[in-house]
Amino acid sequence: MIENEKINRWIKYLNIIDLIGITLVVATAFVFQFFMNELPCPLCLLQRIGLLAIGFGFLLNIHYEVRPAHYALSLLAAVFTAFVALRQITLHIAPGDQGYGSALFGFHMYTWAFMLCVAAIVYISILLSVPRQYHLQKDKEKVSEVRNPKMRKFGHLVFAIYIVIIGANIISTLTECGLQECPDNPVSYQLL
Q: Residues near 99 by Cβ (< 8 Å), separated by ≥ 6?
């Protein structure tokens, strides 16, 4: 039983780390938006939503039991986001096209989003193939592990930061686009 508790704790912390990673990626997009004055295009906004949806699957694993359906939600969100990012990449592959926004380490944000999503698809597929984590949920000793105060507080902190990022994304999008369709190449906030 002690080995099962250690595995369960490791799985929970792994999902927390995954959620932190997704939150940091979306926070980086906000840095580009607010400090470098690069407004996100409609495809960029869809990629943010997709990344947050990937994180939502991990959030469900943190708050509830680890389930294949939660990983499947993250996997589907990663596939969706990869297609959106690939669409944006294909829009900017013409000779002489500088791309949209500035580059980070030689790649634009949408290229990074595509690479992240491909990595997430592989990573989540591997997680889905580990059946032992699902059987741990039936152990009665697992209940006391989930209620570990340190883990709960850390999980709540990560959840709060994730919710703040979602709220900031909603406010930012409403400020940029208003209640209408976002422009293809935004240059200013509609509500400011």
A: 92, 108
Q: Is residue 172 a part of any domain in this protein?
A: yes
| 3-class SS of residue 117 | helix
The answer as to whether 182 is a domain residue is: no
**How far is the C-alpha of 174 from the C-alpha of 190, rounded, in Å?**
8
In a domain, 117, yes or no: yes
pLDDT of residue 72: 93
Does residue 90 lie in a domain region?
yes
| Residue listed under structure tokens 């939150």 | 23
CA gap 181, 166 in Å, rounded: 20
SS3 92: coil
In this structure, are residues 173 and 45 in contact, taking their beta carbons and an 8 Å threshold?
yes
How many structural domains is the chain composed of?
1
Sign of CA dihedral 49, 50, 52, 57: positive
Least confident of 27-31, 55-59, 188-192: 188-192
Distance CA 93, CA 149 (A): 51
17 is in which domain, residue-wise? 2-177
pLDDT in tens, 50-75: 999 999 999 998 888 788 889 999 99
Please report which helix (H) or strand (E) contains residue 104, including its range: strand 103-104
Taking CA atoms, 49 is separated from 22, 85, 125, 180, in Å, by 11, 12, 21, 18
Reply yes or no on whether the pLDDT at 143 is more than 50. Answer: no
Read off the tokens for 63.
């708050």
